[in-house]
Write a structure and sequence with these properties.
Elements lengths: L1 E4 L4 H8 L7 E4 L4 H9 L4 E4 L2 H9 L3 E4 L6 H4 L6 E3 L9 H9 L5 H12 L4
Parallel strand pairs: 1-2, 3-4, 4-5
Helix pairs in contact: 2-3
């Protein structure tokens, strides 16, 4: 597992990594779009939010598991490629308070555990 972010994310990423039960590396700093795409192209899969990396991972053709923004509709922000899976609960149009409540109800590491389960079930390694 490689956790990516900008340089100012490094401490937060290290704190999150310490809570995971898998070997984890931190990649925090600046990168060009093409070098980040090349990096993702070498990855087995991508776990991300509904953000730029999601779309770059789709462009690179790797399995993408993402957490959709719960304030948006399922149709607009849901899966649009065969290689991606929306990990968010099947709710939409939540306000900020309800979105935070739902997000905080998820156990730390849930998405990483689900990523491993999905990869194993699909025969990806």
């Amino acid at each position: 597992i490689v956790l990516c972010g900008v340089a100012s994310d490094e401490q937060h990423l290290k704190s999150f990594a310490a809570q995971l039960r898998y070997p984890t590396h931190i990649l925090a700093g600046e990168s060009s779009l093409l070098s980040f795409a090349a990096f993702l192209g070498k990855c087995t899969a991508l776990l991300t939010l509904d953000s730029g990396p999601r779309h770059i991972g789709n462009a690179m053709g790797i399995p993408v598991l993402f957490a959709r923004n719960l304030s948006h509709s399922l149709i607009e922000a849901g899966s649009y490629c065969d290689n991606e899976i929306d990990l968010a609960p099947a709710v939409e149009y939540l306000d900020d308070v309800e979105t935070e409540r739902v997000a905080r109800s998820q156990p730390v590491g849930l998405f990483a555990d689900r990523l491993i389960d999905v990869l194993k079930a699909k025969g990806w390694s």
